[in-house]
């Protein structure tokens, strides 16, 4: 594992097997989130993976802890927000990635795994 300081809107280190973004995508609107994911996609190896740790909302109107956090993101970041699995899937597809798995983690978090299309 290598931790690197930088600007993920501009570049990330190239050629690695996995890129972990923990609670990053929810800070940005769809356009900026897609930009970040495209930069990662361009840098990753052909068989690399993107791993997102995010709160994933249900696709329906059922109650969920993340819905409160979604309102807080709106208030704190203006455009940041929590997303459903289908909304994450759409962001990944727009960035040239394919969702291959979503795994529940403690504290309402989900690990989303994606690969190049």
Describe the structure.
The protein is α/β, with parallel strands linked by helices and 117 residues long. The chain has three helices and five strands; from the N terminus they run βαβαβαββ. The protein has helices at 30-43, 65-77, 85-94, and strands at 18-22, 49-57, 83-84, 97-104, 109-116. Strands 1, 2, 3, 4 and 5 form a five-stranded mixed sheet that branches. The longest helix is centred in the first third of the chain and has 14 residues, at 30-43. The chain is globular.
Secondary structure tally: strands: 5
The helix/strand class is alpha/beta
SSE run:
EHEHEHEE
Strand content: 25-35%
Distance between the termini: 24 Å
The whole-number mean of residue pLDDT values reads: 93
Shape: globular
Instruction: Report the C-alpha radius of gyration, rounded.
Output: 14 Å
Number of helices: 3
Low-confidence stretches: none
The major sheet is characterized as: 5 strands, mixed
Helical residue percent band: 25-40%
């Amino acid at each position: 594992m290598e931790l690197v300081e930088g600007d993920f809107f501009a570049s990330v280190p190239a050629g690695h097997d996995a890129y972990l973004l923990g609670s990053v995508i929810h800070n940005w609107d769809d356009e900026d989130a897609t930009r970040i994911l495209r930069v990662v996609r361009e840098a990753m190896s052909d068989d690399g993976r993107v791993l997102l740790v995010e709160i994933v909302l249900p696709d329906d109107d059922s109650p969920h802890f993340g819905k409160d956090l979604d309102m807080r993101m709106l208030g704190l970041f203006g455009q940041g927000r929590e997303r459903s699995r289908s909304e994450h899937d759409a962001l990944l597809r727009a960035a040239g990635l394919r969702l291959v798995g979503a795994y529940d983690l403690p504290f309402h978090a989900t690990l989303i795994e994606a690969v190049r299309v």
